[in-house]
Amino acid sequence: MSNGPTDTSPYAQSPFGQNPPAQRPTELYAPGQDAAGQAWEQPTFTEREEQPVVWGQVVVPGENGLVVAPPTAQEQQLMLLRRLIFPIALVLAVVTGHWFTVVVLALVVTGSLRRQLAMSRRHRLQLAPTLR
Prior knowledge:
Elements: H1 73-96, H2 99-127
């Protein structure tokens, strides 16, 4: 004469009043088999596959490539300035207390420097075919 369920499984009664469905796998596979029942085997590495013979011109890295000039002194200075903008802006923001103004100014200057550097890089790459 019990008032509750007689099933002693952990899923006999959920806190929400409904019994969950049975938790069983639908299909069982042997270890190493897929759904089609095919077993996977470790390939042997003793056999050497024949590589196809390659015919034609061989491309050697570094030869016949573009010769690009190194960055100019002005470009190197702009790269250095671009790297130092945010540390300088952080110091200025702490010293002056004008965080918003300094951060916006740093973002504008960084964007301008990025654009200038991109234009100079593009110019160097356009001159590359003439440097051979």
